[in-house]
Amino acid sequence: MDTNYPDNLYDYYRKNPDVFEERVDSKKKIIDYALAAIFLLLIIFPSIIPLQQVLLVRIVAAIGLIYFGFSAVLGGKAWYNKASGGKITEVAIKKFAVPERGTVPNGADDQKVLQLFANNDWAGLANEPDANDRPLQLYIHEDAVGKTFYLQLMRYFSSSDFRGTSEVKVIREPQYASAYSIIKSIQSTH
Fold first, then answer.
1. How confident is the model at residue 188 (pLDDT cuts 50, 70, 90)?
2. Closest by alpha carbon to 77, among 23, 14, 29?
3. What DSSP character marks residue 103?
4. What gap in Å lies between CA 87 and CA 77, rounded to an integer?
5. Is the peptide bond before 6 cis (omega within 30 degrees of 0)?
6. Which DSSP helix (H) or strand (E) runs through 58?
7. Could you tell me where the beta strands, DSSP code E, fall in the chain?
8. Cβ proximity of 121 and 182 under 8 Å
9. Inter-residue contact 90 to 13 (CB < 8 Å)
10. How confident is the model at residue 190 (pLDDT cuts 50, 70, 90)?
């Protein structure tokens, strides 16, 4: 098994700093911090909202504080292509029905999907049956501004080991235009 594959697409972006950069959306972080502060204020002073259900106000405020607090601290970051300036977004995750759970990694059950991916057969990958809770998955990201797709096959090798099992395929123009509708038809199953 080749261990030189990136662990995931984000690992690929991190390992290519000349092409990609992670940016922080300051406006989103400020809004999230402000909303977290408002919910904290509602926990402390629930009577700001004229409701008789103080406990309900505090419960809703606690949920809001947790959500926007985590979002402010952990969120607000995104990857961008330096050349195009385009934000890279997740398009889909396809979980292939075959191989099933418990099969040997890179074994006979994986080979059909691995061959389709190696041969850039996007229509074949789109037509493969999918199911939840499966070990072999196709991750697709897109830079719409730069008209580029990034695709990688990922696999569960154990319950705690989920990583790339292929190189990252980068599809740019003119292949981007011809593969666009097929790749966009690959539906996310998560």
1. low
2. 23
3. P
4. 10
5. no
6. helix 54-74
7. 20-24, 77-81, 88-95, 136-143, 148-158, 161-164, 169-171
8. no
9. no
10. very low
Cα distance between residue 157 and residue 151, in whole Å: 19
Six token digits for residue 109: 């059950």
C-alpha pair distances (Å), 56 with each of 34, 41, 63, 128: 21, 14, 11, 48
For 84-130, what is each residue's pLDDT tens digit?
Answer: 999 999 999 999 988 877 677 777 778 899 999 999 999 999 999 98
3-state helix, strand, coil in the chain (%, to 5): 40, 25, 35
* Coil vs helix vs strand at 84: coil
Six token digits for residue 150 = 């990034």
User: What values do phi and psi take at 165, rounded to 5?
Assistant: -120, 15
